[in-house]
Description:
Elements: E1 5-7, E2 10-15, E3 20-27, E4 34-37, E5 39-44, E6 51-56, E7 67-80, E8 86-98, E9 101-110, E10 119-121, E11 130-132, H1 146-150, E12 162-167, H2 173-184, E13 188-193, E14 197-200, E15 207-210, E16 213-214, E17 220-223, H3 230-242, E18 246-247, H4 251-258, H5 260-269, E19 277-280, H6 286-292, E20 298-302, E21 311-314, H7 317-329, E22 334-338
Parallel strand pairs: 1-11, 3-10, 4-9, 12-13, 12-17, 17-18
Antiparallel strand pairs: 2-3, 4-10, 5-6, 6-7, 7-8, 8-9, 14-15, 15-16, 19-22, 20-21, 20-22
Helix pairs in contact: 3-4
Amino acid sequence: xxxxxxLGWAEWVALPSLGLPAIKAKIDTGARTSALHAVAVEPFGSxxxxxxxxIMHPDPDDPRIEVVCSAPVIGRxxxxxxxxxxxxxxxxxxxxxxxxxxxxxxxxxxxxxTMGYRMLLGRSAITENIHISPSEIxxxxxxxxxxxxxxxxxxxxxxxxxxxxLTQEPGNYSNRKMxxxxxxxxxxxxxxxxxxxxxxxxxxxxxxxxxxxxxxxxDAIIPRIGSRMTFYGMAVVRQFEMMGTYCLNSAQAIGASRxxxxxxQLLAQHRLGMPNTAFAMSSRDTKxxxxxxxxxxxxxxxxxxxxxxGVVLAETRKAASALIEAFRGLRAHFLVQEF
Length: 339
């Protein structure tokens, strides 16, 4: 900070990196360490990149205002409160802003729901440019809790996320590249093998379990479910959705994408470009089917095929007719699509 500030015994402050634009803080030079109200404190990340996520209710009179915060952990500290009780707390470092002046401070996380002020500003956060006037209050510009009600999604603060990739191949190239990209942006990301998940399905505490323990709460899940795992994978994704976790692809969307016919009907319904397609099972009108697809060459594919299996290119009408007859003999559902 470059300017000089005079603070009363209580001031409005902002912690922009935590997504907290307005908090009333009590200035207490008797306390060495600053403290911030935090509930549902949850550590995550590796030992090389420890993070902590917590929920903050900035307005003591309105618990409905809830902000999910996360930040890198710089350590743990045992703090003795004014009533003599000691508590081990996570310590984070984050910028504080008062009247346009910004500087980094260390903050411990603790439950202050019984306190009148959600934040305590200790003497370690008070620089040589700050003067304290203990007999005065709110000497700096006043803020308002209304800012939380007016915030729009596009203005939400960037913060480290805990992300899970639902996959059967944690070591494949695309998963490794996603992990690299997420970690380069400060996020914590880990692979969850779909088949090793099992679920507690109830109306009070739905959970996904993995290797003997309930999985932690994720900010987002990226489903990467192979065709052989579709049914079970969709069930796991639905479970995460029940728990309120954001899933990049919903179970419904995954199911629609695996149903070739439904996927084509949805594309057509929304007027999205796609090849002319005919769908049949046992129709004897081979010529009519080929005409609906726009004539040869065509691709004939089984509805249940995956990864190119059961998909055949017919370059002539004779070859296409033979394929259609073969699929008809199997009494299989098939698509005929222009090539």
